[in-house]
């Protein structure tokens, strides 16, 4: 039966019990052989797909397979090969359905907080500058920097956006990108904008490598400074009212530092000659992958590779945060695509994030690098309609709805895709529904589609990846990563010392119970 199954084409093979039995046996053998890697992680790569809920992951899997010419459903994403899986509860202190600032503070700083605030505990209030003083919480990037590790941020949105911002900023508002975006009262009270903090809060030790790649040029330069890429478009000019050129300021304090603003500049950077790299490739967010000019704008895969090649030179290891979040007005590009109701844009971003995960795996080793992939929240995005196997993920349901009109498999619970035509919703049609800017229909009319509140998946491989298990609060992610890399507040924990001893042995000596006990004891320390 085994040989017969191997000789059959996939559709025919799937009709035989042997195909499924053999596949399950192979998975069982892998599961039985799986052993925890209970030693410290030298490096951590943390991939965050903004808005990449389970339905988005499933649809992206199918899209990836169909891009390769297959049916799609049986495709495996690179991130899905990771052996350890958990679920993360995404609510914030004040919201059942969260935003990217509150969730970013949770998974990067280790404490849940209020929506729209960055790097602050729940004692701070949104928009109230004075409430931030004394309520700052440190991120895992900050802790990695203190431990002598190189650090990096890669994002397809502006580097001052909520998700990367939580890695370095303490702000009562996620929208305080530059001083021009802040109320007069907040400036008078002494609060600093997020771009200012990007330059000043990450320089704990200037002897370690640092990489910052994404968008957000306009928030770094004085008002009316022409943009290098769009010099004739005044809407893309610098916005700072304080006259600071933060790019020049960042460069002036470092040796072997380089600033680039296009793909040509990034490609010209030699990995062994630059210790500090800042690349800002758009005035605000970077373009969607499907809209990207491949000759002038780097992809998330290219940015991730450049960051790893520079950061891995540090003998103490590195921490790298990689985010794909591209949605008009609100967040990273996956997230942005959903907010605008354009599923194809969102799913292509998810596919590109997975390609970045795959490339990172080729450039590092799971023996010393903990890689974690998760989302900050999900979206009211779904696909259904009893579609047949192999149907385009952007295609139509096989039967018309009760109103005798066609509809796409992908639908949104709310958003800009709501439409009424001749007393009812318009009938969906091909090839229009396959267009990259097609807006799938939504049940409730909103200017932008909203996040959703269900749990999101966490996938992990590498040292201490077994700590990611079960259903966890989102802030647990930061604690598990800190414990894995022996960062504060876990540097002196018994489980961390035991893991160090195990790293000198030829045999694996997992101590998951001790590790989890240490996490439980210190769980409230990380926010202090």
TrEMBL record:
Q: Which residues form the active site?
A: 100
Annotated keywords: Cell membrane, Glycoprotein, GPI-anchor, Hydrolase, Lipoprotein, Magnesium, Membrane, Metal-binding, Zinc
Top EC class per UniProt? hydrolase
Which residues does the annotation say bind Mg(2+)? 50, 161, 163, 323
Task: Please provide, in alphabetical order, the Gene Ontology terms of the cellular component aspect for this entry.
Answer: plasma membrane; side of membrane
The chemistry this enzyme catalyses reads: a phosphate monoester + H2O = an alcohol + phosphate
Record EC number: 3.1.3.1
Q: How is the cofactor bound?
A: Binds 2 Zn(2+) ions.
Q: Where in the cell is it found?
A: Cell membrane
MF (Gene Ontology): alkaline phosphatase activity; metal ion binding
| Superkingdom per UniProt | Eukaryota
So where does Zn(2+) get bound?
50, 335, 339, 376-377, 451
Q: Specify the protein's topology with respect to the membrane.
A: Lipid-anchor; GPI-anchor
Q: Which prosthetic group or cofactor does it need?
A: Zn(2+); Mg(2+)
Task: Note one Pfam family from the annotation.
Answer: Alk_phosphatase
Outline the subunit composition: Homodimer.
The similarity comment for this entry is: Belongs to the alkaline phosphatase family.
Quote the protein name from its UniProt record: Alkaline phosphatase
């Amino acid at each position: 039966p085994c040989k017969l199954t191997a000789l059959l084409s996939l559709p025919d093979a799937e009709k035989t019990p042997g195909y499924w039995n053999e596949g399950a046996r192979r998975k069982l053998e892998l599961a039985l052989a799986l052993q925890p890697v209970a030693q410290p992680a030298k490096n951590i790569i943390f991939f965050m797909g903004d808005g990449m809920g389970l339905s988005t992951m499933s649809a992206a899997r199918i899209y990836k397979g169909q891009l390769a010419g297959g049916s799609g459903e049986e495709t495996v994403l690179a991130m899905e090969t990771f052996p350890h899986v958990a679920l993360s509860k995404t609510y914030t202190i004040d919201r059942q359905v969260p935003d990217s600032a509150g969730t970013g503070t949770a998974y990067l700083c280790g404490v849940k907080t209020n929506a729209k605030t960055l790097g602050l505990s729940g004692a701070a209030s949104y928009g109230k500058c004075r409430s931030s003083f004394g309520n700052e919480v440190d991120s895992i990037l900050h802790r990695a920097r203190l431990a002598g590790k190189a650090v990096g941020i890669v994002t397809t949105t502006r580097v001052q956006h909520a998700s990367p911002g939580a890695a370095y900023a303490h702000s009562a508002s996620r929208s305080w990108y530059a001083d021009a975006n802040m109320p007069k009262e907040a400036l008078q009270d002494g609060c600093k904008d997020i771009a200012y903090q990007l330059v000043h809060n990450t320089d704990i030790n200037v002897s370690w490598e640092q990489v910052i790649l994404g968008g957000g040029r306009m928030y770094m330069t004085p008002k009316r400074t022409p943009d290098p890429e769009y010099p004739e478009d005044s809407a893309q000019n610098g916005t700072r009212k304080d006259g600071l050129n933060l790019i020049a300021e960042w460069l002036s304090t470092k040796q072997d530092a380089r600033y680039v603003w296009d793909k040509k500049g990034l490609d010209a950077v030699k990995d062994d000659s630059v210790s500090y790299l800042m690349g800002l490739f758009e005035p605000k967010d970077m373009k969607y992958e499907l809209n990207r000019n491949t000759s002038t704008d780097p992809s998330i895969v290219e940015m991730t590779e450049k960051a790893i090649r520079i950061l891995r030179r540090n003998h103490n290891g590195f921490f790298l945060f990689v985010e794909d979040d591209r949605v008009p007005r609100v967040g990273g590009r996956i997230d942005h695509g959903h907010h605008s109701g354009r599923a194809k844009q969102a799913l292509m971003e998810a596919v590109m994030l997975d390609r970045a995960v795959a490339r990172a795996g080729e450039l590092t080793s799971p023996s010393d690098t903990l890689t974690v992939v998760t989302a900050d929240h999900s979206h009211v995005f779904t696909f259904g309609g009893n579609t047949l196997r192999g149907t385009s993920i952007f295609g139509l349901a096989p039967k018309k709805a009760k109103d005798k009109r066609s509809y796409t498999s992908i639908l949104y619970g709310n958003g800009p895709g709501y439409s009424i035509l001749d007393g009812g919703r318009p009938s969906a049609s091909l090839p229009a529904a396959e267009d990259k800017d097609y807006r799938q229909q939504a049940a409730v009319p909103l200017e932008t589609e909203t996040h959703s509140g269900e749990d999101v998946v966490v996938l992990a491989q590498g040292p201490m990846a077994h700590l990611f298990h079960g259903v966890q609060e989102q802030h647990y992610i930061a604690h598990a990563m800190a414990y894995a890399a022996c960062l504060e507040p876990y540097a002196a924990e018994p489980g961390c010392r035991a893991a160090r001893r195990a790293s000198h042995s030829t045999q694996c000596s997992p101590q998951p119970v001790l590790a989890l006990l240490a996490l439980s004891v210190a769980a409230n320390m990380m926010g202090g």
